[in-house]
Amino acid sequence: MSEELAPWILRLLEFLKLSRPETNHGLGLLLLWFAFIAVALILWRIARWLLDKVLHGLARKTKAEWDEQLLNRPLLSRLSFFIPLSILSVVNDLLLPLHPGLQELLSRVLSLTATVNLLLVGFALANGIEEVLGSVRRLKDKPIASYVQLAKIAASVVAGIAIIALLIGQDIGVVIGGLGAATAIILLVFRDALLGLTASVQLSTGDLVRLGDWVQIDKYGADGDVVEINLTTVKVRNWDMTFTVVPTYALISESFKNWRGMSESGGRRIKRSITLRSSSVKFADDALIERLGGVQVLAPWLAERTREIAQANATSGAETSVLVNGRRLTNIGLFRNYTERYLRHHPGINQEMTLLVRHLQPTGEGIPVEFYCFSRNKEWAVYESLMADLLDHLLAAAPYFDLEVFEWRVAPQPGH
Fold this sequence. Notes:
- The chain is of the alpha+beta class.
- It is built from 16 helices and eight strands.
- A five-stranded antiparallel beta sheet has the order 4-3-2-1-5. Strands 6-8-7 form a three-stranded antiparallel beta sheet, with helices on one face.
């Protein structure tokens, strides 16, 4: 059809005085081509303005936010660019029937431009979908960015194959068949992306990591909140406000600690111990028991325990004049029970969770007394302050039970 229109195009050029029958009409075609390019660009600007005013304007007027995010300006601008491409494609078929080589070249250029623009449209649409899904409350902790990046990679691969097919003038199926021999190279190039994709699916399916989780990855020095999960990396904001970027597949191949369970529970665990000198452990005498009778949290239990022991010794006929006969209270046992009751009366301790005080295996330094409980407030600063207050109090209370806390002492050097 374009060949049939060739005489009409020549007459049009002669009518516009852009060419003469006895001269070459190439200059006239070039000028006419640039004129159509200018018209196409003007129409593109008009179409972009109309789409922005109509579609994006209507989206802004609605109460919902998803339509405004989906019909974003980059998407509308790239969609409108198809208008000048379509016009130039038609003009190319009409103006250059007598120059098949140039016509084929410009046709390929336009096709490549349309392919790239279609890819950019897909990217803009994917970004809008990511924003829409990211605003959904149920999906805020899901790695949406990883799936969007995967879709972009897949679209880029398809677009790349199409561009190669256009450049070499072959069918897409032939190009795909030729890429089979380069599979190993492709796997090597996209190794991190493929490993990241597998890890992202496992993390999402197993609900191992979410945005906002506090994770600790010792190998990479990461200890803080997860702020970003991508296809290949996980970004962690450490507590010192630095950032650590960890490969996504490292969360599957390496061990890490996720503190989400603590955050979702009713408290944060406190597990500390005080080592007491074995030489300071003794049976509690009457003076010590009388002095401890004034400790409010311990007095009710101490009075009941004293009566119970006295009754048991009387029943068994124990000769209590010898200290090791019968049952007796010890200062370390009194300290252990005091610690438990002190924690049970502390307002900062969650009384509905596990609370216990126990002796650990004696060591060369002494006998560790460990207390295990959970704080009500899980905020880091409040938690550390509470734990420090508990240790301060118990360390200061130990001498009141005639107990000595172990401390390192430097041996005096000869000559000093």
